[in-house]
Write a structure and sequence with these properties.
This protein has a 6-stranded parallel β-sheet, covered by helices on one side. The protein has a two-stranded parallel ribbon with strand order 4-5. The protein has a two-stranded antiparallel sheet with strand order 9-10. It has a single domain, classed as TIM Barrel. With 276 residues, the protein is of the alpha/beta class. β9 and β10 form a beta hairpin.
């Protein structure tokens, strides 16, 4: 160790010995409220549910705030969903609700935005014209894969000198053991961040399996997962924002949603609202 290193370490050790807070593990760092968000679609009592959730922000897969959400403290973040959404009207609306703009929704899936990389790159300057800070298209899978949809988009953006200020991802865990699921999620996020070196927005996340149709674990499993996940993401300051999927829950049966119609909280809804 150099003499300079020793001079730095000694005061640090003294601080750790005299200040218990200085010795607290990194996993105990509390996220700011603005990091935590939620995806919102129409439900009875949506405004009340959003208020009760204490979410710092929300998106609705739209360029403007939906009419079914009234005044709340949560910040609305606009999105240009797909190729058909790149209109003068949508871009003007998004510009009013910046400073951030989410890019295309799962362009790598045929049942979602369904766009090839070249099409997305050709349209990206229209999004740039808003002057807003841009979050990449949110791929459903393979964000860290060399040669994958996102990798080809990010490479093309650099070659064309297009601006991408952050990377968006979606993640649905099929392992219903919460601690294992968090490890799988953070491993994926770490790999994506290592590849692109940009802030990450996790704009859809929950535990859900899609084999044989969407299936979710019991509410107490989702509740445990969201607590552990929030703690783990809090140790990664490059995870700028994350959004649970979603605010509404089915009136009956298992759901990853936070609130049933009428703003009645589910088990995961109570856990989410109680996050520090």
């Amino acid at each position: 160790m150099s003499r300079l290193g020793a001079l730095l370490v000694v005061p640090l050790l003294a601080a750790l010995l005299t200040d218990p807070a200085a010795a607290a593990p990194a996993t105990e760092r509390v996220q700011s409220r603005e990091v935590r968000g939620v995806g919102v679609w129409e439900m009875r009592g949506a405004t009340k549910a959003l208020r009760k959730s204490r979410a710092g922000w929300y998106h609705a897969w739209t360029a403007e705030p939906p009419a079914y959400v009234g005044r709340t403290r949560a910040e609305f973040v606009p999105m240009i969903w797909g190729a058909g959404s790149v209109t003068d009207e949508a871009l003007a609306s998004a510009k009013q609700h910046g400073p951030w703009l989410l890019g295309f929704n799962e362009p790598d899936l045929a049942e979602q935005a369904d766009m090839d990389v070249e099409q997305a790159l050709d349209l990206w300057p229209r999004l740039e014209s808003t002057g807003l800070r841009l979050v990449s298209p949110a791929v459903a899978i393979g964000g860290a894969d060399a040669g994958g949809w996102l990798d080809r988009f990010m490479t093309g953006a650099e070659q064309r000198d297009l601006r991408v200020d952050a990377v968006a991802l979606h993640w649905y865990g099929g392992d219903w053991r919460p601690r294992r699921a968090v490890e799988q999620l953070t491993s994926y996020l770490d790999a994506v961040h290592d590849r692109y070196g940009k802030p990450i927005w996790l704009t859809e996340v929950a535990l859900m399996r899609f084999d044989g149709g969407p299936r979710v674990p019991p509410g107490k499993v989702q509740a445990r997962f969201v607590k552990l996940m929030s703690r783990a993401l809090g140790t990664r300051d490059w995870v700028s924002r994350w959004a649970w999927f979603g605010l509404p829950a089915a009136a009956k049966g298992p759901s990853s949603g936070l609130y049933k119609p009428g703003a009645r909280p589910t088990a995961v809804g109570r856990a989410y609202a109680a996050l520090p």
